[in-house]
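Re-running the complex after MR caught last week's input typo. The corrected sequence lines follow. Everything else is unchanged.
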Amino acid sequence: MEHIYLDNAATTPMNPAVIETMTQTMGTVFGNASSIHYFGRQARKVLDDSRHLIAQSINAKQDDQIVFTSGGTESDNTAVIETALARQNVGKHLITTAIEHEAILKPMKYLESLGFEVTYLPVDQRGLISLTDLKQALRPDTTLVSIMMGNNEVGSHQPIHEIGRIVAASNAWFHTDAVQAYGLLDIDVQADNIDLLSTSAHKLNGPKFLGFLYRSEQVKMPSLIKGGDQELKRRAGTENVPAIAGFAKAVSLLDSKVKAARQAKYAKLQEQLVSGLKQNGVEFAVNGGQAPDKLQHVLNIWFKGCPSVPLLTNLDLEGIAASAGSACTAGSVEPSHVLTAMYGSDSPRLQESLRFSFGSQNTAEEINYLIEVLTKITRKLK
Amino acid sequence: MKAKNQTRVIVGMSGGVDSSVVAYLLKKQGYDVVGVFMKNWDDTDDSGVCTATQDYEDVAKVASKIGIPYYSVNFEKEYWDRVFSYFLDEYRHGRTPNPDVMCNKEIKFKAFLDYALKLDADYIAMGHYARLQRDSDGTVHLLRGADGNKDQTYFLSQLSQQQLQKALFPIGELEKPEVRRLAEEAGLATAHKKDSTGVCFIGERNFSKFLSEFLPAKPGLMKTIMGEVKGKHYGLMNYTIGQRRGLGIGGNGVSNDPWFVIGKDLATNTLYVGQGYHNEHLYADMLDGSQVSFIAPIDQRGREFHCTAKFRYRQKDCGVTVKLSEDLQKVQVIFDQPARAVTPGQEVVFYDGDECLGSATIDHAYQKERVLQYV
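Corrected-run output:
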């Protein structure tokens, strides 16, 4: 059976060029980048070059504003927890949205248990916050505003530039979780007044267990992980140099032109899927809004009257990999907090929606097969 | 008949050794095997630990080892509505229900079967110790498991011909030690996993305590049949006919024999106790029942026939005469020999040799045509 992968928001296959870079680095550079000898210097050089390339990719002012972490979750945790703790003297109020990833929401809950106050901004049916809500929520004691750039479940793309401008005029720092957006959008942390930005390498055909946290010059806080003085004391633990070289390679392959081409490709695949389903008489509705308020690689669809678990199981048995938001391990699908925020807890969309997310390897033929299979399955399940 | 590799069998995998071996054997025989874990009950405790999560982990390990895809499905709502509500309702009426019988009838061979059919299953397979014999016309006969100690036909006795035609019980031919040996040989993670005991949703917990969380316990008096007060009971639902443990009264009656539950009266909230394992109030010579369900077409045997029966699980068969009502909705069962502790709410299961014919739910037990005060 052929397998078709349409879950690229969960993770992506590694680019062969990335694998080659990593394999080569593993074979030749094994030193500890903190060591003062020849081997250490070799590793350090790879690390420095990679950091420079990555800093350029988001227009960071300085290379050392890039701190390598174990991935998006650690970057998010660090940004939220360490900012809150480091700025307690300024205030104990934080702002985020109802549709953040758990890597933001769980640290927020943790901080609430420590006595911090958190405002969760609501979203509309497109999955977008209101700038007026943000302005009203900001207070002199607000120390952090954390709003994701692009949502992982429905793809909603927040107005980051406007948010950056509003937050810049307050006492708060602005963090954005760019895990989904980094491989698809051009990001300029200076132009957008971003103080903290999280990414993950495996969402853009790089290695897993790696990401970075960008920190603007005004951000001062300790490492979440306690230990050695790596990453200028900003993240303890020996750097995974081969993986970082691979990350840089993956980023280098995604210049503005490539990203624009991917956006166009994914928009076309979305269009193909939507019109194909319509043509076949499948009853459905897209959850969320349209581009440009949306990342093109994520398409969340409500299949009216078809529960998501048998849908997903049938798809997998037909060789198609998709996702239903956050499925709990033992059978129950936790209703998505993102769809709940957009449509309310009574909406049938919570139990009857699937997410398809595209990657560079997907083709129009695959989408045709998907349309054919979805038509068959939705008929059977009704 | 479809080729085996074109025949999809959906295995209900619980994370135990029996269903693990079922999946393993079917895969080895060349079927298109898919494992599906059912979550029927949420027992997540305060620390977030849930046995279903651990069981699902085992399903994942075993299925990966065998090389089959695995999924899960949630039937918490169906289980609550169709099994647990019935379970509580029966207790509320002073009866002693059998939730496993209901679980097979309503969940494993209904909700799960329906779900499996939506995944294009040709059959579902379960780790029950029971055998199926198929006639050339497609009719199935349910036979006792080869392992006499483990035979589970009692719990399958309310299933219909249609339900069983879609079922496979690959380990019904095996004895338990052989199942464990196969699991070990195949390197399955569940080879040495402890068997689950008791009712699935209660597990190892204290039964009375569990029940009291759902049904208010109404304490009352414990009396002899002559009306002598012997103590207090803590809610009729906590006692079953013929039970000895937990009464809190020692000898000192007519004889020095231990005390047993010999009856209940829901109307006066009285628990009747009497002395001696063989107390005469514990013996019935007849019962009547409803929820009559036969696997085999009944016409073949007529409205009245002789066969053997079990009145509870793990009991030897007794000879009985079965009399069906006109509309086949009720049954009267007359015993060859008086039987002890025939309990309303339990199943009376009929056998002809190794074949399980079907069952009914016991409503009343009689002694010399007088109904025994059991509810």
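None of the earlier attempt is carried over here. Chain A touches chain B at residues 309-310, 313-314, 316-317, 329-333, 380-381 (CB under 8 Å). The mean pLDDT of chain A is 96.
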